[in-house]
Amino acid sequence: MSKYLADLPEKTELDNWITQNLTNPYNIELVYRFDRNLTDQGKDIAPIKLEKVKPTAEAILNIFLKAYEKVAGAAFIKTYTPKQFVLYGSPSYNSNGSITLGTADGGRRVVLYELNDLDFSNAAQVSRKMRTIHHEFTHILNQMIAIPPEFRQVSKGDYDEDWTNANNTEALARSMGFVSRYARSQYTEDFAEVTAHLLIEGQHWYDAWAKAAGADGGAKLKRKEALVVDYFKQYFNIDFRSLQHEVARVLETVYNADKSFIEYLKKGQILQPLIVDFANGLHYDEYGKSAKFDEVWNDVMTSFGASGRVPLYFRIEFKSSNVMTLQFVYNSTTSSGLEAWYDFNMNINSDGDVTLTYFDDGNTATAYSNGRNSAVKTGATPLINYFNENVFNLSWMNYQGTTNTYNKFAGFSVKDEPDNYFYGKY
Amino acid sequence: MNQTIISMANTKMKLMKQLIYLIATAFLFAGCKKEVPHFFEESPDDRMAARISELKTGLLSAPNGWKAHLTTSAKGGYGFYMQFSPTEVTMVGDLNETTATQPQSSTWRIKWVMYPTLIFDTYNYIAMLQDPTPATYGGNAGSGLQSDVEFEYQYSNGDTIVLRGFKYRNYFILVKATAEEKNRYLSNAYKDNIEAINDFFTNNSNNYIELPGLNNKVELVFDKSTKTVKFQYVDNEDNVKQVSGKYNFEDVGVNFAAGFTLGGVTFVKGKLEDGKFVLYAADGTKYIVNQSPNPILPMSMLFAYNGTYKELYIGSSLAPGVTSGWNAVYNASVTKFAAMNPTRTLVDIRFILTNSTKATVTIRNSNGTTTYTANATYDYTYDNGVITLSNPSYDGNWTARVAQLIDIQNYFESGGPFRVDYVTSTDPSVTGLGGLYRVADATSFFYGTLRK
What we know:
The complex is a heterodimer of chains A (426) and B (452). Chain A is built from 15 helices and 14 strands. With 426 residues, chain A is an alpha+beta fold. In chain A, a hairpin with a 5-residue loop joins strand 10 and strand 11. Chain A is elongated. With 452 residues, chain B is of the alpha+beta class. In chain B, strands 4-3-2-1-9-8-7-6-5 form a 9-stranded antiparallel β-sheet, with helices on both faces. Chain B has an 8-stranded antiparallel beta barrel with strand order 10-11-12-13-14-16-17-18. Classes of the chains: A alpha+beta (426), B alpha+beta (452). At the A-B interface, strand 3, strand 4, strand 5, helix 4 and helix 7 of A face helix 2, strand 4 and strand 5 of B.
């Protein structure tokens, strides 16, 4: 059968681009021309539109291959990545009414569906598709090194093959400690879903999801996260946090995904407090601080000092997308580590400018009572006034720079006054 | 919406491996012999290559491209014009206005499967029919219009190449186009033709042809939403018959998919000529489509509680141009209502087949501010187009106005049985009338507009 390949089609410009960018550097074949044998042969699946091939390949490169390459190294990517990506235009319909967006098999091939309607200028749509790739690639890694048995134990007994059942609502799946309805189908899918969501939706999203899941579900979600992070470290020597940062960076810089602090704040996904501790934060030596804010802090020290009290540091906690709490930690002449809390209404306008207004709703918790002590209140007043009187921009510090600070520090800067700011550890 | 993983990959792989070993073993033994005797003169790969080349050079040999048509399993026929280059195929199609006016390119290839198979291997207008997403072009989730993007080569004959869908087995037929045809397809003429024919069938109903040997008219039903056509008629033995076909638009007129045959006549094309729609038989005979003021099928075939029509309706006055004994009955009632103090008007009258056993006559009258609805209810039987009413009962509004309704009451109570049939007005603008003819006196019949 020497002439078996007599039907090989001629190479086009697109084929040459694929050779140069995927096949030569990564030894990956991209099959975009319809081939019934590479999918479920009994199903009707439409071919991909020609104009969607290159943007899909670029997204695979940017959000998947290069992100792993940067964090895990070239050897990893050449060893473990699937050797064949197969693209189809329509989804693959299942008899239970669900649709398949992707499959991975034999540790070798990833098949992606429903690419024809993908709008590559829409970050949410691109993210959704790339979540499928990361999901499928996680399966491939799991086919190399099995999922640790502990993972299976976390939600043992809660898995349900019939995940499309109407009873399996998103809220129910979440409260049970699943990252999606589909994650409930079996533990292998659960593992891939946790990984893909942590990478694509990001840590803030995941933390907010875990919080909304309630105590039990939240604990399970955080346990699964820890096992995923550990799996990558232990078996592949991959710093999963760096991988998360890298994927987020590409989604933000290349696909215009909004990963700004203010966006997370609006979604209620800023769950940890900012800690502003000038005395102990080594990062202030490394990244500097604002002289103008130093004056405010000096005023605070002076006014606390009038009653013999010493402010140690403060926290900013975001209770919701419209209330924040200023939390002082201070020593008095008799006690140390006392707290004084003040609430602010927070208004975020359409440009992302933030205005704050102090209010006291009579909360009787100790920290609020401390805050009402007149001497303490006097001490806190310079900072309360600072918040009341200025318009702020909130952002990650250097978020487009090094991954060192990405999502680790965030701060307030006074609008149109770039040298008047403070930031803290997130 | 979510992902799944194929978990049967392992068993599939195993099977594949076994197959590969088996084939490898076969080759091992085959390799021992230097000369494998061929059953045919040429080796299998020579014959395969020749067939692939035959199709490929065939497709590339049309300087003015191809007129193509394809039927779908879920709906009707679809027409295309396409041109092949070594790497791409460019086409327009009659799916919608965009596909008819915006040429689209995709890749194509020929692959040997069981036959040389033409594969439209990236998305194009043919793939729209195959697309399993209903939002794209209709059909059911998972199968769309039940069509293919892979077509097996059957044969060539002169200027025609015949292929067949890999899964749904529908024929995909390409015929070489002339320069003139190409120009029409790639200009607005194609879209204009589609619109003109669609408009014709929007504006003209009760379309029919007459065929030698058939006593009754043959209705032509043109269904735009499914791209299908249908003949329906009553044959000489009084049986209702239907013949279905599929059509697609061409640069001029429409093409009927093979098998649209009635009474030994196979209809192949149709087009507009001088404001008339004309069907062409395979032998070139023309059949002009005419329009009837009334539906083509007998009224008894269509008038039933669960049929096309179930109501006869008289509005504020009788339809003009009809002479019937009913007219005097109706006018007597109108006069009696008008004579009331305060005066009343007859608003409308309905005869309705409510269900399989009950019929009602509903009459509304008004004093100018309030409208009263009076109902008479009957049991009925309906045999051979004859309705027999029995066991009448009258509601309170009816008995309250029995003085005004008595003529109508008597007409239905003692005038029957009634034969159903169409009613023709001398006024040509009045169409769609149906009647209940007294079997005892065909010059007297209740009549009104046929309604659903």
